[in-house]
Amino acid sequence: MSRIALVVGSTGIVGQTLATRLVAEGWTVHGLARRPRHDMAGVLPIAADLLDLNNLKLALKDLTPTHVFFCSWLRQPTEEENCRVNSAMVRNVFEALPAPERLEHAALTTGMKHYLGPFESYASGEPPQTPFREDMPRLPLANFYYDQEDVLFAAAEKYGFSWSVHRPHTIIGYAVGNAMNMGSTLAVYATICRETGRPFVFPGSPVQWDSLTDLTDARQLARQLLWASTSESGWNEAFNVVNGDVFRWKWLWPRLAAWFGLEAAPYPGHATDLEEILSQDGDLWAQIAEKYGLTESRIDHLVSAWHTDADLGRPVECVTDMSKSRLAGFDGWQYTPDSFFDLFERLRAEKLIP
């Protein structure tokens, strides 16, 4: 049976990886973004602003997808605005589609802030006991993930399609200009340390340095999105999704350093403000780009140090349980060091790092 996907946010880490996977599986794939890429083989680009309903209706007027995948969000100055804007983006897609009743499935990607709270009150108060499990109650805080879920649930009930919600930990994968991109941020940081002789210091908290944690490869997330959207056991459920292994940053950090030919600096015992450091390195990165003929000389198009600081600076342990999807039949797995090394290889191949 022909499957037609609308990937909302097709230029981000999740959207690009998912769209590529769906094309490889034989789907017809439409990639929606404000500035869609036109060089993704097999992906049909759609340019539209999710907050402009009339524009969105015009862009989608001839499209009748069987599946919609929401892989997009817009950061706002407050969580109240995050809730308003990001729930409207989901709602507008359903309103703009000419025949939403013909949808078979809609999948929403959210994340660990479901358990840890929004950025303005991130990991504050009494943290939930790890590992995070899908049946944990919502926190008594405003959270745009909750608002997006509620829009999804209401649309599914109204139009009669199945849904799934996917909650990754920090996502490692390829994208340029992404708002939350730890992998590329650390690649730029390591490159600068190698070029300048600065110490390659882990910038996170003592808890993150010492405790067990996990991450999510974008390819692992794409596998689960595909599985849940096409397997009845994945319908109408929320699922955590991580690589399936656990590690401590004190073990992984020297391995990341070695890939760049560096020695990891001794951990100083406290968090370091990576955003403050890299915010002063714009001219330096432009010089590195010129020296090596790199394709992107603007450091702010490659790094999102604020997000890396938030994730690595958490004062709480973060371990995620994936039993629910395992029991339902999902068997994807990914070795975390290779998530980074594969990304670094691609960044180097595309001349984004030397």
UniProtKB/TrEMBL annotation:
Residues 64-354 form the PRISE-like Rossmann-fold domain. This is NAD dependent epimerase/dehydratase.
